[in-house]
Amino acid sequence: APSHRATIVTDFLAKNSINVFEQPPYSPDLAPCDFFFFPKLKLPLRGSRFE
């Protein structure tokens, strides 16, 4: 089974109230996280430097 379907992973996600975005594997289209997750992540990280 894929790792995101493993019991230990699904239990962890449920326990921590983490939502999983469903997307088809190897899709040529943009993934949902390209529209929702990354723009929200970009804002608080703007101006940060990583090494």
UniProtKB/TrEMBL annotation:
Molecular function GO terms recorded: nucleic acid binding
Domain of life, source organism: Eukaryota
InterPro entries according to UniProt: RNaseH_sf (IPR036397)
Protein name: Histone-lysine N-methyltransferase SETMAR
